[in-house]
Amino acid sequence: MASHDYDLFTIGAGSGGVRASRMAAGAGARVAVAEERYLGGTCVNVGCIPKKLLVHAAHFREEVEDAAGFGWSVAEPVFDWPALIANKDREIARLNGVYAGLLDGAGVTRIEGRARLVDAHTVEVGGSRITATNILLAPGGWPHLPDIPGIELAISSNEAFHLAGLPRRVIIVGGGYIAVEFAGIFHGMGADVVQLYRGPLFLRGFDDDVREALASEMRKKGIDLRFEARPSRIERAGDALRVELDDGGVLEADCVMYATGRRPLTADLGLEEAGVATDVYGAITVDAYSRTSVENIWAIGDVTDRIQLTPVAIHEAMCLVRTLFHDDPTVPDHADVASAVFSLPPIGTVGLTEAEARARLGDVDVYRSRFRPLKHTLSGRDEQTLMKLVVDRASDRVVGAHMVGPDAGEIIQGIAIAVKMRATKAQFDATVGIHPTAAEEFVTMREPVA
């Protein structure tokens, strides 16, 4: 290994790249990491963390409205967007410092700048060439906007975190989790929101009951959901933006945000020169151990387009370090990965959807409950919680759990342990619930739906 400058050179200091670099250095390897933007990657800077902070901010309006039902008299709330963004920026700066400290403390060499491959063992950063026995590609992904007239007038989720002021009218284009989350964020802060999606129902890939329940709750809140709608042109109309739809309709807004997917950030990374193979979308192809088509070059996280979640990238990083520096070849486990959508109300999900379970397993039992949360018996809010279990009839194993409602992510995290352990419905039934909680519904559903 001494023939190279480093044992591991990591391109990208996001969640996966930082974890792999730190753990490899902790195992005694000589490690460097290059980052051209910001430490922590998408999650820390323009993803999970700032988004969740904005979701908290958006939910406060409902909390104020609900307070009257519990005897509180609260003055008319006034929202200050610049104050929120300034506070958010301060927290992100703190986290950037934490990441720098973690890398420095582990003995990782930090290099600022864009790194690209020269060959299988060489990278170039700022005109300097560095060699490494192993190279890890973890540059992440980037928002992708379609090529339509006027698209330069739109923003992506990246820019949404840095708007100077709160737009009064917002059009969100897209049907994935980022789109529904920002629809809830802007609406909760007082903006008029229209969400456009080209398909018949958003959140493709999620359980159908979950998709329908969230659409119903968002419409109750006043978000204008328009499915099978696609913008064909954006143009300025005085101080506003005019959006033409492919069906001839026209909308006006102060801000148009596209959340129509993310692409792996592989352009000009030197992949062709080094012989690293990609798919048609630019994602790096890897084997079960995260090895690319080049023996000593590896890739993890969003750039591989497996499961685009921060904890998955971290898990892949840990497996890679065990493989490379602990003589313990380890395959990342991508089965039954739980996730949450921080929409308003939020979603939590783990395992198979009902449709997936029927296709794979045949006979399944479905347990489903819809109810009004206890809080809203006094708040008066018309909001329903959905909970659902999907059970393999042959083995009685719970193969899917899904929820729409307050604290869904927190609740499903615990349920995910049971699903991962292959718990049966009988074991769910044998668990005594905590009363009064919404979570107890997961262990009290006794009769499958027809």
What features would you describe in this structure?
With 450 residues, this protein is of the alpha/beta class. It has three domains: 200 residues, FAD/NAD(P)-binding domain (3-Layer(bba) Sandwich); 110 residues, FAD/NAD(P)-binding domain (3-Layer(bba) Sandwich); 105 residues, FAD/NAD-linked reductase, C-terminal dimerisation domain (Enolase-like, domain 1, 2-Layer Sandwich). Helices cover 32% and strands 24% of the residues. It has 13 helices and 21 strands. The strands form five sheets. Strands 1, 2, 3, 4, 5, 6 and 16 form a seven-stranded mixed beta sheet that branches. Strand 11 and strand 12 form a beta hairpin. Helix 1 runs parallel beside helix 4, helix 1 packs parallel to helix 9 and helix 3 crosses helix 6. The longest helix is centred in the first third of the chain and has 26 residues. The radius of gyration is 24 Å and the shape is globular. The termini are far apart. The model has no long low-confidence stretch (mean pLDDT 97).
